[in-house]
C-alpha cells in the first residue's frame, strides 16, 4: 500500500479498507529471530510437562543425512538456545537450553550452535547439515567474514573444532 502505483488487487483491498476506516501499515521484514525472541520472552515453566507429539509431523520430513537447525536469543532478562535435529527416518529431536549468563545475541547464536554440535557428537552423528539464521555466525564459520569481536573468538574457535 505504500507504493505510489498499486496493483489491481491491492487497489481493490485498499478501497475495501477505506470503507471501514482500516489503516494498512506494512510490516517490516520478519526474520526467524522472532520465534527465538518469543521463546526468550516466554520461558516454559519447569513444572509443565512437554510433549514431542506434533500435529502434521509428516510435514517435517527431511532427507538424509541428519539436519540440525540452531537458534539463540538474548534478552535483557536472560538468554536461550534451541536446537532441532531431523533424522532421515523423519524423527524430530528438539532441544532447548537456558543460558545462565547474560550475553549478546551473537554469543547466544554461537552457544546454540556449540550445544547442538556437542549434542550431535554425543549421539555419534558426525555427518549432518547445519542450518542457522544468524548471518554473522554462518558467514564467519564459512570463512566469508572475519571474527573481529574479541568476545566471539573463543566461541568461533570451539565451533570450528567441533565442526572438524
UniProtKB/TrEMBL annotation:
It holds the Pfam family RVT_3. Transmembrane segments: none annotated. It comes from the Eukaryota. InterPro entries: RNaseH-like_sf, RNaseH_domain, RNaseH_sf. Residues 62-164 form the RNase H type-1 domain. Signal peptide: none annotated. This is RNase H type-1 domain-containing protein. The gene is LOC140014654.
Amino acid at each position: 500500500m505504500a507504493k505510489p502505483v498499486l496493483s489491481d488487487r491491492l487497489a481493490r483491498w485498499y478501497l475495501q479498507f477505506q470503507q471501514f476506516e482500516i489503516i494498512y501499515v506494512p510490516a517490516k521484514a520478519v526474520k526467524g529471530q522472532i520465534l527465538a525472541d518469543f521463546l526468550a520472552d516466554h520461558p516454559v515453566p519447569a513444572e509443565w510437562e512437554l510433549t514431542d507429539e506434533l500435529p502434521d509431523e509428516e510435514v517435517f520430513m527431511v532427507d538424509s543425512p541428519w539436519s540440525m537447525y540452531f537458534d539463540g536469543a538474548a534478552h535483557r532478562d536472560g538468554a536461550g538456545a534451541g536446537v532441532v535435529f531431523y533424522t532421515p527416518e523423519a524423527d524430530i529431536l528438539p532441544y532447548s537450553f537456558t543460558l545462565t549468563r547474560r550475553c549478546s545475541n551473537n554469543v547466544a547464536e554461537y552457544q546454540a550452535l556449540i550445544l547442538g554440535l556437542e549434542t550431535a557428537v554425543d549421539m555419534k552423528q558426525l555427518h549432518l547439515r547445519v542450518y542457522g539464521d544468524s548471518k554473522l555466525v554462518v558467514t564467519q564459520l564459512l570463512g566469508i567474514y572475519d571474527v573481529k569481536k574479541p568476545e566471539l573468538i573463543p566461541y568461533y574457535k570451539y565451533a570450528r573444532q567441533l565442526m572438524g
